[in-house]
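Continuing from the previous page of notes. For each protein in this section, the sequence appears first, followed by its structure tokens. Read the first protein now.
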Amino acid sequence: MQVGLLGHGVVGSGVRRIIDDMNAKKNACLCIKRILVKDENEMVEDRMTRNIDDIILDQDIQLVVECMGGKEPAHTFVERALESGKHVVTSNKKMLASYGDELFELARKNGVKLLYEASVGGGIPWMAELRRIRRIDDIECFEGIFNGTTNYILSRMDAEGCEFDEMLVQAQSLGYAERDPSDDIDGYDVAYKTALSCLAAFDCYVDPQEIPVWGIRNITKKDMEYANEHGFSIKLLGKGEKKDGILQCSVMPCFVPRGGTFASVPLNYNAISSVSETLGKAVFTGQGAGSLPTAHAVVQDMLDIATGADIAEHSITACSVDESTEVTCYIRNCSIPVQYVSEKVDADTVITVPLSYAKLKELTDNTRGVMVIEVKK
């Protein structure tokens, strides 16, 4: 199968390397014919082009692999590929979470596949495992560490007793965090991945902007010390549950018990768990990012398409997030009315009574420097 590859950055170059190596071993059913690059200085071989039409209009190319990142022009290019009757594999969680409803419908109308294993969990086969579980069980719920950048920062703060800003700079120096880390540290990256997990687990398309989100930007050494004193680690978790037709999901830092499933997940690793009736709780752990682990997931999707693997199609329903779920939280640097306070930790910090996500947003939105951490019971 002839392939058009969009993007030759961290993930795209990894995909090209794996496919070319497979061809060198003479056992590949895939061949990259064209590679779309952004800049003239990236044009280092004959396959490379800066014109998307060289891929979209090429009748020999049956599969387009999008590894560009960002919403545009990735969304437009994927849309054109599907309209042209080409299968698409993408690693782009931001684009797919934002436009998934229309793109999956477009794929269905044109009789082609749209696969996205690498968009959540990097090298962890999270989407594939959800599909396997759903052949037998309904997924009841999932939760996990979906972002390696924030897990690295929190792990290092915990281990070294350092402040957030110092660990962020270290993560950036190692390439774990972007120059602008907002999507990661403010929780939006996890919201995109949580939305896509809801799609795979529950057939629910949810706008990631509807998901209640709290990030880790304002976490301090003081919060880490409180966690340690009470036998906890702090992890940023994305969660989703569908019960009696009602969808609940969120992204927020949580106190998790030391010795529990997530507390020991190190550095930039991810760990995600699902719960279903006959399998019970299953946990999937591995590299959540990086060139070759993510490219490995992309190529697995490519092989599924090239070999005609039987992949169940989504029957997607647009869903709204129910914000009535109640959580108990540790809140610092926010004036909380006394009726919502269960315990006063110090002059700046309280433990709340159980509050709905809607009420929690009302109390904490637009408060500079606020830190919200769920106290898991």
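Done with the first. The second protein uses the same format. Note its length before scrolling.
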Amino acid sequence: MIGAVVGSVPAPTALDAGLGDGLNAKVLVLNKLYVAVRVISAKHAFGLLARDAAEVIHADDGTYANYDFESWTEVSELRKEFEPEKHDWVRTVRLDIAVPRIIRLLGYDRLPTQGVKLNRRNLFARDRNRCQYCGNLFPTSELSIDHVLPRSQGGPDTWENLVCACVRCNARKGGRTPAQARMRLVTKPVRPKRNPLISLKLGHEKYASWKAFLDEAYWTVELR
């Protein structure tokens, strides 16, 4: 499985002493057929590159180039000189390496499993940390998950029946439906077509190159 492949490959020791922010940057993983299968940390990506299990795919103005780890380190030297602000960086003992936005697995051609996982993280991302009753934004620590149709009335644990709610609104609604509590939903809850966390990433300019590889039929990957 792809999870086993990614998780079992450690990053090079020199990179562990690198810049923390760079190592935590996100990298889109393609399979051998150039289909998006997962998003991983830069630390895991560099581990795969160092083991020759993957190559860098660099997208620029509609064109794409493939680099192995050695050639990418050489390209990084030029990018650091001419466009350092366009990249996240990892510092090793010998040099600074640009974090690739996309890598391609050389020996993996499986397609990702369909379906976006229903969990708290994805629910918060779908609703963008906005209480679905009062409409205000809250940090994750101040949000809860509310059953639109309460469990006590047979409400299921589904995308269409779960929403983010602040503590105050959740307490006000209690074990009632919105209509019974005289409250309205800001947005009708629906099952997302793609991982909502990815949608948030795509709003950031530095991840724009991902869009070329996102196929709606397959894009159901998980952030790890």
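What the second structure shows: The domain at 120-173 is CATH 1.10.30.50 (DNA Binding (I), subunit A). The CA atoms of residues 178 and 184 lie 6 Å apart. We return to this in next week's lecture.
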